Fold Cytidylate kinase.
Amino acid sequence: ATPVIVAIDGPAGTGKSSTSKAVAAQLGLSYLDTGAQYRAITWWMVTNGIDIDDPAAIAAAAGKPEIVSGTDPQGPTITVDGVDVAGPIRTQEVSSKVSAVSAVPEVRARITELQRSIAASAANGIVVEGRDIGTTVLPDAHLKIFLTASPEARAARRSGELKGADVHSTREALIKRDAADSSRKTSPLAKADDAVEVDTTELTLAQVIECVVTLVEEKR
Ligand code: C5P
């Protein structure tokens, strides 16, 4: 079989990561979390004292950190200059700054190139999740999925993950991040014209996984 490329996009809290990992594991495909890459470059900017409110400073530094993603869906990894950042990239500080960093065109160009080379070298195919995978990074993907869910469902899922974080402030932070991601000039969060939209509000994770697996199998 030719390597199948699956793009899964959508806002935060729609179940993208859980779905993408499970689908990849079930079908023997690689897995790439592109949000983790944007979080990793943001972590590096914060750690190195780059002013997040200065796009020119971010652009000038965009080429410096070396970001490496491990694509095993059973245990994806992410390092920056050899440092494991899987934990540090999930802090609220990084979450609140990642939209500003990922809006900078030089950052997107750098990370997009990395994503394309990872996808091209995945011998068995890959599931790539993010915001602009179907529209910009891999416009020729065999299958494009756009996951959505109500703001309430997304905030409830995310605050569950954050172990007790309050749902109201999680909801506000998610809405703010989605608005920033959807309104930026360079490859905003958007549904590709040829993407299949799946509203996960009323679905269990198992149902979403089954739905996507069926769609992938139809393409193979
Ligand atoms: O998926 P996750 O919520 O970890 O993504 C973190 C952030 O990374 C998003 O809010 C967005 O600003 C950025 N991102 C992006 N393009 C992608 C994936 C993530 O701009 N393909």
